[in-house]
Amino acid sequence: MADQLPIKASAKKASEAERLALAIRNRKEQLERANAAVSRLYEARDALRAKSAEHETLISHLDGFYKEVDKLAKGKALFPATDMTVENANSIIRDAKGIIDGDVYIDRLKEFIPAGDNPVYPDVLMAARTIQQATTRFTTTLQKRRKKLSAAIKEAETVKTAIEIFVENEGHVATQEEIDEPTASWFVYDDDGEGLFFDFDRLDTLDISEHLTAILTAVDAKE
Prior knowledge:
Blueprint: H1 4-75, H2 83-99, H3 104-108, H4 121-168, E1 187-189, E2 196-198, H5 200-203, H6 208-220
């Protein structure tokens, strides 16, 4: 009977090692999906930064255009705008449609048709004013999207780092203190209530790629 104890202990140790190896394999698969999702989030951040820069350029150019047309409208209200003014107005309208999404008034705005008589200056001014108001609204939209995206990246990095720690440290479950700027909702108290540890039980109920993609979809949703 005594001779069986080392055998049982050895079998138990082997079983634990197998479970750990399996868990690490599963975590590595999760890590691959998390890394892919993190990459998409950073790509989205880069795209949002580019759109924000284009938006700022549009605001700057539109401000100068509006002031000049406003001056002309006061002295030539009933006169057709020059071809150059119309061309510039149409370029601004195209740029606005390409940058500002989800704004019904920009969607309704049409370019001036370069045929027949040109529009009078007040009509050009009205189009420019419509775009100015839309750029103001879109500034708020961009701010909201940046905030959502920052939170999504923070959450994704939290999940990715926790998985990395598990894989690299043979099953170690990360505490909240071990992760830089963690998303608190991913941590739960241990059975003794003495520490906050990453919630792998929650992670295992999710497809992490789909979860983070859903966050990205929410960020991209029209305001």
